[in-house]
Amino acid sequence: MKKIIAIIERASDGSYSVCHDDLSMGYLVTGTGDTAEEAIQCFNDGYEDFRRIYKEEGKPFNEVEFVFKYDVASFLSYYSKAFSLAGLSRITGINQGQLSHYLTGRRTPSATTVKKMEDAIHEFASKLLQVKFA
The whole model's pTM is what? Predict the structure, then answer.
Protein backbone atom coordinates (compact mmCIF):
# COMPACT_ATOMS: atom_id res chain seq x y z
CA MET A 1 0.00 0.00 0.00
CA LYS A 2 1.29 3.43 -0.93
CA LYS A 3 2.37 5.64 2.00
CA ILE A 4 1.45 9.33 1.85
CA ILE A 5 2.89 11.96 4.18
CA ALA A 6 0.28 14.14 5.89
CA ILE A 7 1.58 17.23 7.66
CA ILE A 8 0.12 18.47 10.94
CA GLU A 9 0.38 22.25 11.20
CA ARG A 10 -0.71 24.82 13.76
CA ALA A 11 -2.53 27.93 12.50
CA SER A 12 -2.01 31.43 13.88
CA ASP A 13 -5.33 31.13 15.78
CA GLY A 14 -4.04 28.04 17.63
CA SER A 15 -6.10 25.49 15.71
CA TYR A 16 -4.53 22.57 13.84
CA SER A 17 -4.82 21.34 10.29
CA VAL A 18 -3.72 18.20 8.48
CA CYS A 19 -3.19 17.98 4.74
CA HIS A 20 -1.23 16.11 2.10
CA ASP A 21 -0.12 17.21 -1.33
CA ASP A 22 -0.06 13.94 -3.24
CA LEU A 23 -2.37 14.64 -6.18
CA SER A 24 -1.77 11.20 -7.70
CA MET A 25 -4.44 9.77 -5.40
CA GLY A 26 -7.23 11.47 -7.35
CA TYR A 27 -8.68 13.07 -4.23
CA LEU A 28 -7.46 15.50 -1.58
CA VAL A 29 -8.04 14.96 2.13
CA THR A 30 -7.79 17.69 4.76
CA GLY A 31 -8.77 18.01 8.40
CA THR A 32 -8.97 20.74 11.01
CA GLY A 33 -9.54 20.87 14.75
CA ASP A 34 -8.80 22.62 18.00
CA THR A 35 -6.18 19.96 18.80
CA ALA A 36 -3.88 17.83 16.69
CA GLU A 37 -5.95 14.78 17.61
CA GLU A 38 -9.17 16.44 16.43
CA ALA A 39 -7.52 17.47 13.15
CA ILE A 40 -6.21 13.93 12.58
CA GLN A 41 -9.65 12.47 13.34
CA CYS A 42 -11.28 14.95 10.93
CA PHE A 43 -8.67 14.00 8.31
CA ASN A 44 -9.30 10.26 8.81
CA ASP A 45 -13.07 10.82 8.66
CA GLY A 46 -12.59 12.67 5.36
CA TYR A 47 -10.59 9.74 3.98
CA GLU A 48 -13.37 7.34 5.00
CA ASP A 49 -15.95 9.63 3.36
CA PHE A 50 -14.02 9.47 0.07
CA ARG A 51 -13.81 5.68 0.36
CA ARG A 52 -17.59 5.44 0.92
CA ILE A 53 -18.47 7.89 -1.88
CA TYR A 54 -16.20 6.15 -4.40
CA LYS A 55 -17.76 2.80 -3.49
CA GLU A 56 -21.30 4.19 -3.81
CA GLU A 57 -20.45 5.63 -7.23
CA GLY A 58 -18.69 2.44 -8.36
CA LYS A 59 -15.37 4.24 -8.86
CA PRO A 60 -12.03 2.59 -8.14
CA PHE A 61 -10.56 3.92 -4.88
CA ASN A 62 -6.83 4.30 -4.32
CA GLU A 63 -6.20 2.93 -0.82
CA VAL A 64 -3.24 4.57 0.89
CA GLU A 65 -1.61 4.66 4.30
CA PHE A 66 -0.99 8.05 5.83
CA VAL A 67 2.16 8.84 7.79
CA PHE A 68 1.53 11.85 10.00
CA LYS A 69 4.35 14.33 10.54
CA TYR A 70 4.36 17.46 12.65
CA ASP A 71 5.88 20.72 11.59
CA VAL A 72 8.17 21.94 14.39
CA ALA A 73 5.86 24.72 15.62
CA SER A 74 2.95 22.28 15.88
CA PHE A 75 5.01 19.72 17.74
CA LEU A 76 6.31 22.31 20.21
CA SER A 77 2.85 23.74 20.78
CA TYR A 78 1.04 20.44 21.04
CA TYR A 79 3.55 18.77 23.33
CA SER A 80 4.06 21.82 25.56
CA LYS A 81 1.77 20.06 28.04
CA ALA A 82 4.37 17.32 28.42
CA PHE A 83 7.66 19.13 27.73
CA SER A 84 8.76 22.58 28.78
CA LEU A 85 11.05 24.45 26.39
CA ALA A 86 13.77 24.20 29.05
CA GLY A 87 13.32 20.42 29.16
CA LEU A 88 13.32 20.14 25.37
CA SER A 89 16.44 22.28 25.29
CA ARG A 90 18.19 19.81 27.61
CA ILE A 91 16.98 16.84 25.55
CA THR A 92 17.82 18.30 22.12
CA GLY A 93 20.75 20.58 22.87
CA ILE A 94 18.94 23.43 21.08
CA ASN A 95 18.86 26.76 22.88
CA GLN A 96 15.56 27.43 24.69
CA GLY A 97 15.27 30.86 23.09
CA GLN A 98 15.66 29.31 19.65
CA LEU A 99 12.95 26.76 20.46
CA SER A 100 10.71 29.64 21.49
CA HIS A 101 11.25 31.30 18.11
CA TYR A 102 10.30 28.03 16.38
CA LEU A 103 7.19 27.74 18.56
CA THR A 104 5.97 31.23 17.71
CA GLY A 105 6.87 30.92 14.03
CA ARG A 106 9.31 33.84 14.13
CA ARG A 107 11.98 31.51 12.82
CA THR A 108 11.98 28.25 10.93
CA PRO A 109 14.55 25.58 11.80
CA SER A 110 16.91 24.30 9.14
CA ALA A 111 16.58 20.71 7.93
CA THR A 112 19.70 19.87 9.97
CA THR A 113 18.14 21.29 13.14
CA VAL A 114 14.87 19.46 12.51
CA LYS A 115 16.79 16.19 12.13
CA LYS A 116 18.79 16.92 15.30
CA MET A 117 15.56 17.54 17.24
CA GLU A 118 13.86 14.46 15.88
CA ASP A 119 16.83 12.19 16.63
CA ALA A 120 17.20 13.55 20.17
CA ILE A 121 13.48 13.16 20.92
CA HIS A 122 13.46 9.61 19.55
CA GLU A 123 16.52 8.75 21.65
CA PHE A 124 14.83 10.20 24.75
CA ALA A 125 11.64 8.23 24.01
CA SER A 126 13.68 5.07 23.59
CA LYS A 127 15.22 5.61 27.01
CA LEU A 128 11.76 6.15 28.49
CA LEU A 129 10.66 2.79 27.10
CA GLN A 130 13.39 1.15 29.18
CA VAL A 131 12.15 2.61 32.48
CA LYS A 132 10.94 -0.01 34.96
CA PHE A 133 9.51 0.70 38.41
CA ALA A 134 9.98 -1.51 41.45
Answer: 0.81
